[in-house]
Amino acid sequence: MKVKKRFSLSRFFMYSFLVVASFISIFPFYWMFVMATRPSAAYNSIPPTITPGERLVENFLAVLDKIPFWQSMWNTLVLCTVVTLVVLFISSLAGFAFSKFKFPGKNALFLAILLTMIIPPQLGIIPQYYLVAKFGLLDSLFGAMIIFFLNPLGIFLMRQYISQSVSDELVEAAKLDGCSNFRIFRSIVLPIILPAFATLGIIVFTATWGEFLWQFTVLRDPESYTIQVALSSLNSTNNVDFGMLLSGVFWATIPLVIVFLLFNKLFISSITEGSLK
Length: 277
Fold this sequence. Notes:
Layout: H1 2-36, H2 56-66, H3 69-100, H4 106-115, H5 125-134, H6 141-145, H7 152-165, H8 168-176, H9 181-192, H10 194-209, H11 213-218, H12 227-232, H13 242-276
Helix pairs in contact: 1-13, 2-13, 3-7, 3-10, 7-10, 10-13
Transmembrane segments: 12-33, 73-96, 108-131, 137-157, 188-209, 242-263
Protein name: Carbohydrate ABC transporter permease
Domain ABC transmembrane type-1: 73-263
């Protein structure tokens, strides 16, 4: 009986902690939604406003009047999708090579890739800008996305997942059957690492969606703006309409929620498999 009570008490504290943590995580998004439905004056009101208002549509129409919202959303969607697909392709191939092949300098090269993760991205803006300008890619989506194609974190995650999930014996058996390296990757490795694909895809997509500094540096034409750059133009005056600004931020967050809901099962299965291993 004592053990049962102790277990119930620990479970109560665990669920209480999860409820509090969930509330803390969700509340900023709820408050953003509340501010998106209120006039700008509600932003600094005391006590704070925590109930939705009636200006969600009005504030959003004001956003549409100020910036090319839908064009910017489309640009961002294209940029994030292309970056995510390219990162998944390059990272999975590189991870496969680093985990299952032996070649001179493999460990040194992998270490060099990992070391790039400790370099602040701001340090590379000037040389990256110079190269992008040299190739005539300024003010283009390709120029805004090209520096994100090589992702050290993605290569590391894929190497770790493939080395644990794909046995060396399976790869050797496929080679004995006459499979080429790329066919082994396509027919054997790829189906096994789909959960890792979902995890890395969500990480890359959300990180690229929230990227601002590089996009702000290379994009100048409003027609090529991503949503982050377009929303920043709403904050360029002293008289900021916070209701309008947060309305734009709220609608710009919806695609991220949709992406997570679509791939969360694979994301969770990837975490579960890792914990079981």
